[in-house]
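Our preliminary data section would be incomplete without showing what the modeling component actually yields. Below, a chain of 483 amino acids is followed by its predicted structure, encoded as tokens that our downstream tools consume directly.
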Amino acid sequence: MVLFKNPRLWLYIAGTLPPEKVFLFFGIIWGIFQVFFTPPFQAPDELNHFSRAYQVSEFRFSPQLYKNKLGGFLPGNIWTTEELFFHIPFNPEKKITKDHFINAIKIPLNIENRTFIFFPNTSLYSPVSYIPQSIGIFLGRILNLRPLVLFYLGRIFNLFAWILLIYISIKTLPIAKWLIVTLALLPMTMFEAASVSADPITIGLSFLLISYVLNLAFAENTILGKKEILSLSIISILLSFSKNVYFPMVFLILLIPIKKAANLRNYILSVSIIVGSALISVLIGALVLRNILAQIHPIEQLYGDSSLLPQVNPDKQLAFILSNITGFITMVANSFYILRLYIFQSFLGKLGWSEILISKWFYYYAASCIGIIALFEFKKEIRLTFSQRLILLVSSCLVILVFSVTMYLSWSSVGAIMIINLQGRYFIPIVPVLLLLFYGKKITLPKFVIPLVSISLILVSIAVTINTILVRYYIVYQYYTLY
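Predicted structure:
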């Protein structure tokens, strides 16, 4: 009763809430709910991600080639289970019924009866991105559980690995804790975290790298010693293997002052070890990828021979880029401008296979809340110098440039005049870096404001996500977005 009679006490409590515990509470409860509430195989490319995760669970780290197609020889009932849900994406009139689950749970694994399953895009992903999912699937295989159960085990293990990485990140951060909490619990991020996708590990590792670097840069009594060099090297290696487009994030280590390494010589050596280990990882990944792609003839049929899919040729695309670098950069800028609304929406939350809008009012509300947190969550004693802001900006721009080149090489037909696969979810790892550019304004808000803004957005995100998934997948009437 005291709480209801004294609103100031509520505000005091809000101002003292530990951000990492708020994340843990919502991450676990909302995450577990969403694992089972989102129908099977309805996250982006989740059909292919599950096939790749199962392949990795059998310690088959390289894809198999069959009739000029990339994928793997997996138990045929993996595809039989996936096929039950295959018609749902991009067909808003199709709903999930109890028969989907009844029929799916009846299908046994039957590990001996194998067939070739085609999953060309995820077959090129590093096994690092599937470590949690494959562990869950591996344990399920030991017990000879059914494919649908293996799928849910993959989701659960992926979710908890992501929660652990984000929790450690928030705990480690000396600044912008509520910013990370907010970004981690956005509808799009949570939708990915509760899936078998490769993205949660990439997001978790990127956030961990950011937090560890900021801790070394700004926290008191921290040094860039052997333990820290080893930790940063491991995180950078795993992130580079997970998705090499995020390799430039390793240059964030330049935020760490030279004094933290005792002298310039030690600093240069430390930076060289960390950057060098990440660069070697990228080169190894690139060589492996090139060796795999060299087996496909013609390479234009990497994703199949359908006219609806891009007919890629990375070598010709690279030659095209190098022949007109200025034109390519202009084309990249035009692509981002044309797709700006799509990128904005798919960063905050465009669910399903990136085809389900939430609502216009939510997108603007979420952007406003994130803007308030980014602008006004700061510590007076911590200031970013001009050179540090420049490092943040250059690292972000390098990631965007490398990502743009990679998307053009891997998901555009030769000579394409636009990059079409600019999904906002791909930029989740670098958004904290971009938002830190606004860190350190002089206006000070009451202590309770930032936590209340963050928690309000989290609660609204949960509500709109539940409504969107419920209406899209379960309620049997014509689906209309609020957009």
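The CA atoms of residues 344 and 424 lie 6 Å apart. The chain is about 60% helix and 5% strand. Preliminary results of this kind motivate Aim 1 of the renewal.
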